Amino acid sequence: MTESGSKLRIFKILKIIISSLLITVLLLFTIAAIRTLSLDVNAGLQLAHWEKTNNKSLVIDHHQREELLANFKEAIRIPTVSFSNTEINTTALLEFDRFLRKAFPTVFSSSLVHHELVGNYSHLFWVKGSQPELVPYMLLAHIDVVPASESDGWEAPPFSAKEIDGFIYGRGTIDDKNSLMGILQALEYLLLKGYAPRRGFYIGLGHDEEINGLNGAMNIVRVLKQRGVQLLFVMDEGLTISDGIIPGLEGPAALIGLSEKGQATVKLSVSVAPGHSSMPPRETSIGILATAVKRLEDNPMPRLFGYGPEGDTFEHLAHKFSFPLKFIMSNLWLFSPLLSRILERKPVSNAFVRTTTAVTFFNAGVKINVIPSLAEAYVNLRIHSAQSVEEVLDIIKDTVGDQRVKVELVYGFDPLPISGADEKAFGFQIIKKTVLDLFPTVTVAPAICVGNTDSRHFIDLTKNIYRFSPAWFKPGDLERFHGINERISTKNYEEMIVFYFNLIQNCDIRKLPEPHSSVHEL
Ligand SMILES: CCCCCCCC/C=C\CCCCCCCC(=O)N[C@@H](CC(C)C)C(=O)O
Ligand SMILES: [Zn+2]
Ligand SMILES: [Zn+2]
């Protein structure tokens, strides 16, 4: 073949390759565009014909408002702090017990309600249903709070429950006395109105959630297991209604946690011979450990976006974003790698992308002129749904890559199972319906809870655990969680009561409706 003949052949092959590539790209974009226009996973059962339950409605009058706010404020003023794994405020927990009995006299005296103390300070309520064949469900909340100190910069003392511009300030106002008081206040109102549930339910109030729930939630689970109880679903704290928190999202979103990330606390330690600081070795225990810690920070865990429930979250929210995010989120089959790079830029969304690594303790040194024999650091990892404690530990050892650094697992558990969110998932659909009835402008989406809750101890009692409370989180509110100026608006606290009031009644529905065939559904 002549030189010009072979050039022509190469040119023809190149032409074929380029046109095939163009056709493939065009085809992919056409599929992506069709999916962007048709994806509206938020439709579902909302349009279906729901079984009638004759729900009672709750209209709160002036006197009730004063009383419910006074109750809530009193709950906040009792400092039920869990200080450490071994230090809880038992005096405050006993006071809280007395307070509950005074604030909710109907709950504690009703023949429909059986109450017992578990693990000395936790509370377990059983509300009897009229139809015992209906499988019961369970609502969880916790009594204890994390420590708070006014000197950290609180606008009002953290146990004052002071009301400023329509907000009640105090430790526990969003974590988690709002849920606890909201549930019991709703039950008090329901019982006062003569309500008797068809479906029985439990309420569990743990006293040590902030220190792992080992005596509270775990003992409640033990008691229920001994009685052979199985639950239709469990609902606990966790995610909330985010309003203006997710950049680019139009309107508020109620994220319902289908799972929780796993957790591992890993200790890194370096031991060397101690000595005089005037004759230092080339590397000290502190230097070796600091290098190990820096390696962990410089080498984040792999991106796993799309291998857990977080992909579903963005597909459900996609239609509430504008172009190009709407296009990207509607087509995660194509754009997952791109979206994970966008999300990892901010800590709050990075938590959805991977197992996160946080160095939370660093201890070393005894005296200014002594080479320390021991340096220790603790790393707290929150494990993505697609990884396990064991895998994470292996990656840490590889990344540190230094035999002088001892790596030990102190405490850990794998990510929690993923609960259902489809049209047959009773708990999810009832929570979603209750949210949308009360807040019609909200978009409901399944999600992953990046923190841990007492509900993780309930996995042997049900496959369906949901982490959600109808607290509204606006910009700046995430920082109040375990931070300073924790607060809730009086309006939102009332909404929470109405939410639980409606939720309990909606759970009397015996069977979910058949899915409505809608043009929005795929
Ligand atoms: C794409 C961005 C979405 C942003 C939405 C994020 C909304 C986050 C809302 C709340 C934060 C999650 C908090 C979950 C509850 C955590 C309770 C807690 O602190 N638990 C302890 C348990 C531990 C075993 C003591 C924990 O450290 O996780
Ligand atoms: Zn909490
Ligand atoms: Zn907490």
TrEMBL record:
GO molecular function (one)? metal ion binding
Q: Where does Zn(2+) 1 bind?
A: 175, 210, 482
Q: Where is the Peptidase M20 dimerisation domain?
A: 259-403
Tagged with keyword Membrane: yes
| CDD domains with a match to the protein in the record | M20_yscS (cd05674)
Write out the GO cellular component annotations: extracellular region
Tell me, in a sentence or two, what this protein's role is: Secreted enzyme that regulates the endogenous N-fatty acyl amino acid (NAAs) tissue and circulating levels by functioning as a bidirectional NAA synthase/hydrolase. It condenses free fatty acids and free amino acids to generate NAAs and bidirectionally catalyzes the reverse hydrolysis reaction. Some of these NAAs stimulate oxidative metabolism via mitochondrial uncoupling, increasing energy expenditure in a UPC1-independent manner. Thereby, this secreted protein may indirectly regulate whole body energy expenditure.
- In its UniProt entry, what is this protein called? Peptidase M20 domain containing 1, tandem duplicate 1
The organism is: Oreochromis niloticus (Nile tilapia)
Query: What gene is this protein a product of?
Result: PM20D1
